[in-house]
Amino acid sequence: MTTDPQDAARKRSNAIQVLEDALKQHVEEAQRLLWEGLLQRLKDLHADASLLPVLLQEYANTVLAPLAALYGQSLLNLPALQLDYFAALGLADYQRLRAPLTTFLTARLGLDAQGNLLPGGYLSATMGVVKDRLSQQVLTYAFQAQASGAGIDAYRDGLNMLVVGNGTALGVVQELYKSAGDDFSQADRMLQHLSGKELGLRAALYQGGVMAHTRAFCEVRNGRVFVDFEIAKFGTKADPYGGYTNKAEGLFAGKPDPYDPYSDCGGYNCRHTWHYIPNATALRMRPDLGENDKGELFIKPVS
């Protein structure tokens, strides 16, 4: 018995959200450990900011490096979610996707088979950027506070605001990891696109829900089925669908440069993704589609 594609899509998206929520908790824990480490040596650091580099390097080795590895291992759950999705659709040969999807993802992210970071890979470089930016921000604050002669209470309050944040501002580690959701979303989309090509699927459901902050570009596409030749036109003036701020230039709110509709969907922080479906399902969901004797989908001419 096959599952409705929209239900299967929601199940996969919900599972990805669970992974993101778990990572968020680990990021919050890493931030808490940073604050506690600084607080334990607050008097010494207030008196001498030059003590910070050694402390921050130790933090990077003991906290940031394991966090980055956990990040990679979380992303390695995505191929299995693709298989679960295609199994729910009742496709018979979905198991052959496991090896190519995992190989693609590990190469793209710079991971070995166990999810460990490879030197020079994407996630290794990302961790380096996080470490450098975190150190720069904390050191800049510390030396400026020392130069201004700030008392220890003011020093602690300012450092707390930087590291922990408050109800409206993120802490320093949270801020550096706030784009992590885009990595999950983009990886999922790329794996779906690869799966579609491997399985010979030509149509995909665009789904992610509509909320108060949903962009117009996604709102007009949410819950609709698109064929690959239509998806390729997203972000261009040739796209017949709406949601643009400047249709002549293919611009919409949140559009990155460069833009790839298969990996970016609705742009920065977009929660929508592709869910590839068999031709029979696409024909059922879109009466305006037809299929030729080669298995290619086309839009029926208006009579």
Topology:
Elements: H1 5-40, H2 42-47, H3 52-75, H4 78-88, H5 98-109, H6 122-148, H7 152-163, H8 172-176, H9 180-199, E1 203-207, H10 216-219, E2 224-227, H11 228-231, H12 261-264, E3 273-277, H13 279-285, E4 289-291, E5 297-299
Antiparallel strand pairs: 1-2, 1-3, 4-5
Helix pairs in contact: 1-3, 1-4, 3-6, 6-7
Explain this structure.
With 303 residues, the chain is mainly alpha-helical. Helix content is 57%, strand content 7%.
- Provide the β-strand percentage band: 5-15%
The helix/strand order is HHHHHHHHHEHEHHEHEE
Count of DSSP H/I helices: 13
- Low-pLDDT stretches are none
Outline: elongated
* Helix proportion range: 55-70%
Q: Average pLDDT, to the nearest integer? A: 93
Roughly how many Å apart are the termini? 36 Å
The oligomerization state is: single chain
- Based on DSSP secondary structure assignment, what is the total number of beta strands? 5
Report Rg. 23 Å
Strand line-up of the largest beta sheet: 2-1-3
Class based on secondary structure composition and strand pairing: mainly alpha
* Biggest β-sheet strands, sense, barrel: 3 strands, antiparallel
